[in-house]
Amino acid sequence: MNDLSPAAVAFKPADYRSAVKPVWCPGCGDHSVLLATQRALAELQLPPEQVAVVSGIGCSSRLPAYLNTYGFHGVHGRALPVATGLKTARPDLTVLVASGDGDGFSIGGNHFLHACRRNVDLTYIVMDNRIYGMTKGQPSPTTEPDFDTAISPGGTGLSPFHPLVVALASGANFIARAFTGDVGGCTKMIVEAIKTPGFSFVHILSPCVTFRDDQQKAWKKLARGAMVEETDDPERAARRLMTDDGFNVGVLYRGKREPYRPRLTGGDPVEALEAEFAQ
């Protein structure tokens, strides 16, 4: 938590809210993630100008526009390399990445693997609704194989991508899951992710009320706190995650890897950039 002078005014969740009104569908789980992010930043008392939120493409990737922080809206699937470059150049910033199951695990899947491996101090928030909302119900990597849609009659027949298993195998230092039906739980997971050094992955079940109207009530019944305590043992975590049904919420793994910190030489990189642009 940042040290604030006695005269400083404590930040409230509303201080992280931008003037842009969200355009998500009413009832979309992403509204809860926005609120949870605002509450998490306030709980950590992070000045808005010391936070940057990077995103790619998709419903979830609109998040930076709705936050009163620095933001970067990138191209499809490329949020993680942008955020990695930002964090390595400006290690003083708290960098969050917002993504969805399509943006993060399909076109962005390769970047996901290597972001976990590099273990740069980032917090990766993925809002997973198991569907492509912006492309009218196209199956995503996490869609169930038998989920019937107009685009995939009878389902895809493909095994769904298991992001938590992939994250662990690739080297992520923190792995957690939350459900948007529990804003307090989402807030807690985001706070813990930011506080944990290294690459932190928060998988958030975020129902799509337009193309997956089956999710809201069903997921509320299925989501439950993990029955076992968090572990720092990768083998124990692997056994847990390989048998996970996708609805255990909480911190599932917290490792001890030191985050990657590049060796910056040649003085202050910000001063060097400012001098270059001043020419």
Notes on the protein architecture:
By secondary structure, the chain is of the alpha/beta class. It has a single domain, classed as Rossmann fold. 33% of the residues lie in helices and 15% in strands. Strands 2-1-3-4-6-5-8-7 form an eight-stranded mixed β-sheet, with helices on both faces. The termini are far apart.
List key phrases describing it.
8-stranded mixed β-sheet; single chain; 9 helices; 279 residues; Rossmann fold; alpha/beta
Please summarize what this structure is.
The chain has 279 residues and is of the alpha/beta class. The chain has 9 helices and 8 strands. The chain has an 8-stranded mixed β-sheet with strand order 2-1-3-4-6-5-8-7, sandwiched between helices.
Which structural class best describes the helix and strand composition? Answer: alpha/beta
Number of helices: 9
The strand count comes to: 8
What is the succession of H and E elements? HEEHEHHEHEHEHEHEH
How is the main sheet built?
Answer: 8 strands, mixed
Assembly state: single chain
Which fold name is given in CATH as the topology?
Rossmann fold
The radius of gyration over CA amounts to 19 Å
CATH architecture type: 3-Layer(aba) Sandwich
Strand order of the largest sheet: 2-1-3-4-6-5-8-7
- How far from one another are the termini? 38 Å
CATH C-level: Alpha Beta
- Based on CA inertia axes, which overall geometry fits? globular
The chain-level mean pLDDT equals 92
Low-confidence runs: none
